[in-house]
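input
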Amino acid sequence: MKNVRSQLLASILVNAVYEMRNYPVILINTVLAPISFLILIVFVSHGSLIGVGVLGALIMTMFSSGTSLQADLSHLKNDFRLQDMVVCSPTSAATYVTGMAISELVYSTPAIAILGILFYLYVPVTVAQLFGIIIVLLLMFLMSISLGFALATIASDIVQSFAFTRLLTTLFSTLAPVYYPITFIPEPWRYIAYLSPTTYAAQLVQSLAGFQTATLDTLTIDWIVLLALTGFFLWIGISKSRWREK
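output
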């Protein structure tokens, strides 16, 4: 257990604390990415969607943190050959990825802290509602971490990893109705939005926070789809990734 804790701490120090301490300017992008969309939504809606926007920014932060893992893992794997050293050590793939996943959350703490304050100010919820929202956010993070790990093990270059990250963020966090209710999308186009997992997460947190009304059947379907997709991406991350070179 002590050895596992040391390995987790090493991942956090290498992938989060080192960069945050030596290159603080990169934290600006971490904060601006979700906040910029939030500001845009607030201006366009004249402040009426600020609560929904805060929830959307939290979803984007959690999902982007997970997808960023694949770029960091690819960088350490291909440029520093760190994964080769880890494979030859007693460290398991699960411990390595868990440590790197926690480091992504540590890396996103400035954005999470700011959004947490805005959440407290503009999203009045009960303890039960807050618990449900946290579960949804953790599922989004787990889903994106699993996908990020699978992509990192097959990416051959950091440039390719950045392309994967931008594509996933655009499809799942920007084009999907995360910062606004899905009812804002015209009916014929609404079905396209349901192709994104973040749509179901957004519907759940918006309903839990009382920003939109959904039937019990709709909420049940949202939970089933979100849990099923999380399980599916976990399966991909575990079974389809290449931890060792053949």
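quick obs: Residues 2-240 form one domain.
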